[in-house]
Amino acid sequence: MEKFKSLTAKVMPIPLTDIDTDMIIPAQFLTSVSKEGYGENLFRRLRDKDPQFPLNQTKYKDAAIMLTDNNFGCGSSREHAVWAILSAGFKVVISKSFADIFFSNSAKNGLVLVTLPEQIVDELLAEAQKHELTLTIDLEAEEVRKVNGTVYKFKYDPFRRHCILNGLDDIDYILSMKNEIAQFRKTQMTKPVASTFANN
């Protein structure tokens, strides 16, 4: 997993609520045996149905921050939805709220999800649809910053924040603690074994 500390990038707004995992990556495209290749079919049904869908608009080309409305990532628990977003070049999703399983899958794959208050998200969505919007996402400081200096604070799970800042998936995290684990085992081996039978 890549380390993520801070990102300054263009924003792509998707002003929709309840975007589920099947909308993110439709089931018929779950054919790869690896995490690669899903990005080309990100939001495929919506893109094919609506020529004006944001992913079809050149003005949002190279955007690395996705800005959505409420309850993003609901539906099934498929991890492929996270892989598709990352494969398409997005590193951050900002929303009013996220589905719990989607949030967990994202954290384990290094996709940063930022939750901001409803009013702020509405303002950012409106701004991003009118003209190009660039934001800085600083995971270390837990801040979203605009070019004009406006700062929005957000909270991120401390354990997952540590893992993403250091590029650690769950296995990498365990391996990073190998010295502490070895020391614990050593102390356990030196402890006297209590007798099973009580003395009469």
Task: Label this structure with key terms.
Aconitase, domain 4, alpha/beta, 7-stranded mixed beta sheet, 200 residues
Task: Walk me through what this model shows.
The protein is α/β, with parallel strands linked by helices. The chain has one domain: Aconitase, domain 4 (Alpha-Beta Barrel), CATH 3.20.19.10. The protein contains 8 helices and 7 strands. Strands 4-3-2-1-5-6-7 form a 7-stranded mixed sheet, sandwiched between helices. The longest helix is centred in the middle third of the chain and has 13 residues, at 118-130. It is globular. The N and C termini lie far apart (59 Å). The mean pLDDT is 90.
Mean pLDDT: 90
Percentage of residues assigned to helices:
25-40%
Beta-strand portion reads: 15-25%
Q: How many H/I helices?
A: 8
Quote the CATH topology.
Aconitase, domain 4
The side-by-side strand order for the widest beta sheet comes to 4-3-2-1-5-6-7
Q: Outline of this structure?
A:
With 200 residues, the chain is of the alpha/beta class. Helix content is 34%, strand content 16%.
